[in-house]
């Protein structure tokens, strides 16, 4: 039996939020209220930077109505930060803040960088002699975290992408006369998990359905082959609907860029692949009209059409993260989702070392990419379809979804 530890719980949301980030937060708060060993429930306002600033809110003071509303609220209700903890003094400061506020349980919600921060804070706490249990709670719309079968947020993102691609395709087909190309750009600079999700827009046994062509970072891009692909599709269809990843590489591993639109940020372009493919088609295929669009942040914030499966799993994951630190006594772990082995989809939670998760890349299996290099196999559909099932119930006011707003009652600073 784990050593009984008494003290406060602190939850940090940081990194890029997903449609279900607040559903995880709701699970954490709801479960923490059930444990006598947890005296106060705090939230860092503004991600890891809020933790360093000692900017904390008392989450136990929030109304139950607000906590429930988090399950259908996008973004990070506590506020987030893209700042990445790197230096030992920052880890030391994080632990000192936790000591000052008697934080014995720390839950870090976020992506791979936030899991790395959780691991470093756990190590620093041990070195400082502060008995605190740290757990990483992964959330990633781009499904970019190792070990877990899928990350909370991914199912909702690809549900939105597939739906939007199908809607745009209907518009394109109505407008086209074997001469119209629509290029849709999807988030994903290093991997094609999100872009692959567009394949779900196709109906079963309807190979003519859009998207007709999917271009992933995992497959080197050949402009000449692309032009041949588009020309072939247009011979048999009123329009060609193309889905492309934000990150696209040539055979030498260099980013495909489009003028100033491909602004480099940390060796990664912000975008421009859709503009590049649009211009390739319009300039090199006679008589073609081409347009480009980007789904941008809507992919990870569309809680109004979130997957009910994703929301349910995310809320439970938040609950189980609290159970792991409060009852099981674990630290330095990441909560992961584990798929059942039966034909009927099921999902449980388990734990792995944070270090193991960080050293295990989440790679889109090459076997899931068809030989044509522009479509996904049935194996991807088998993996992804269960994740997008069901619609999350979202209350509305005057026809607009209701969102939660935390009162964020500040906790007095001690360190200053």
Q: What secondary-structure arrangement, pairings included, does this model have?
A:
Blueprint: E1 7-13, H1 21-32, E2 38-44, H2 47-53, E3 56-58, H3 64-69, H4 88-100, E4 103-110, H5 112-128, E5 133-138, H6 154-175, E6 180-186, H7 193-196, E7 213-215, H8 223-236, E8 239-245, E9 264-265, E10 268-269, H9 273-284, E11 289-294, H10 298-301, H11 308-326, E12 333-339, E13 347-353, H12 354-358, H13 378-384, E14 396-397, E15 400-401
Parallel strand pairs: 1-2, 1-4, 4-5, 5-12, 6-8, 6-11, 7-8
Antiparallel strand pairs: 2-3, 9-10, 12-13, 14-15
Helix pairs in contact: 1-11, 4-5, 8-9
The name of the CATH architecture of the largest domain is 3-Layer(aba) Sandwich
Structural class of the helices, strands and pairings? alpha/beta
List low-pLDDT spans: 259-270
> What would you call the shape?
elongated
Output the helix-strand order. EHEHEHHEHEHEHEHEEEHEHHEEHHEE
Largest beta sheet: strand ordering: 3-2-1-4-5-12-13
Taking the sheet with the most strands, its summary is:
7 strands, mixed
Amount of beta strand: 15-25%
Model description:
With 416 residues, the chain is an alpha/beta fold. The chain folds into two domains: 7-153 and 303-362 and 390-401, Rossmann fold (3-Layer(aba) Sandwich), CATH 3.40.50.450; 154-300, Rossmann fold (3-Layer(aba) Sandwich). It has 13 helices and 15 strands. The protein has helices spanning 21-32, 47-53, 64-69, 88-100, 112-128, 154-175, 193-196, 223-236, 273-284, 298-301, 308-326, 354-358, 378-384, and strands at residues 7-13, 38-44, 56-58, 103-110, 133-138, 180-186, 213-215, 239-245, 264-265, 268-269, 289-294, 333-339, 347-353, 396-397, 400-401. The strands form four sheets. The protein has a seven-stranded mixed sheet with strand order 3-2-1-4-5-12-13, sandwiched between helices. A four-stranded parallel sheet has the order 7-8-6-11. β14 and β15 form a beta hairpin. α4 (88-100) packs across α5 (112-128). The chain starts with 6 loop residues before the first strand and ends in a 15-residue tail after the last strand. The relative contact order is 0.18.
């Amino acid at each position: 039996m784990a050593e009984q530890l008494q003290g406060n719980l602190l939850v940090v949301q940081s990194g890029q939020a997903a449609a279900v980030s607040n559903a995880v937060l709701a699970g954490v708060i709801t479960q923490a209220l059930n444990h006598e060993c947890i005296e106060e429930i705090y939230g860092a306002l503004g991600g890891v930077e809020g933790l360093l600033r000692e900017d904390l809110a008392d989450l136990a003071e929030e109304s139950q109505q607000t906590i429930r509303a988090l399950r259908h609220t996008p973004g990070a209700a506590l506020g987030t930060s893209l700042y990445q903890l790197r230096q030992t003094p920052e880890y030391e400061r994080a632990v000192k803040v936790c000591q000052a506020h008697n934080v014995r349980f720390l839950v870090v919600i976020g992506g791979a960088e936030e899991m790395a921060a959780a691991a470093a804070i756990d190590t620093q706490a041990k070195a400082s002699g502060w008995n605190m249990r740290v757990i990483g709670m992964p959330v990633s719309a781009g499904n970019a975290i190792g070990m877990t079968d899928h990350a909370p947020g991914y199912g909702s993102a690809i549900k939105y992408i597939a739906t939007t691609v199908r809607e745009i395709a209907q518009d394109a087909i109505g407008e086209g006369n074997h001469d119209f190309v629509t290029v849709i750009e999807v988030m994903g600079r290093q991997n094609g998990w999100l872009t692959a999700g567009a394949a779900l827009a196709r109906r079963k046994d309807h190979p003519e359905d859009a998207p007709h062509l999917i271009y992933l970072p995992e497959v080197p891009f050949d402009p000449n082959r692309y032009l041949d692909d588009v020309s072939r599709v247009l011979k048999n269809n009123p329009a060609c609907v193309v889905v492309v990843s934000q990150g696209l590489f040539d055979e030498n591993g260099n980013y495909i860029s489009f003028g100033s639109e491909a602004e480099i940020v940390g060796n990664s372009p912000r975008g421009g692949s859709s503009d590049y493919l649009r211009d390739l088609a319009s300039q090199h295929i006679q008589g073609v009209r081409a347009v480009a669009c980007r789904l941008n942040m809507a992919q990870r914030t569309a809680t109004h059409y979130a997957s009910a499966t994703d929301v349910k799993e995310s809320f439970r994951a938040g609950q189980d993260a609290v159970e792991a630190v409060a009852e099981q006594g674990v630290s330095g772990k990441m909560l992961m989702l584990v798929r059942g082995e039966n034909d009927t989809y099921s999902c449980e939670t388990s734990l792995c070392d944070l270090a193991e998760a960080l050293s295990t890349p989440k790679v889109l299996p090459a076997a899931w990419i068809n030989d044509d290099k522009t479509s996904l196999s049935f194996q991807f559909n088998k993996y992804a379809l269960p994740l997008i099932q069901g619609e999350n119930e979202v209350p509305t006011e005057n026809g607009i979804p209701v969102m939660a707003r935390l009162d964020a009652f500040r906790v007095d600073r001690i360190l200053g």
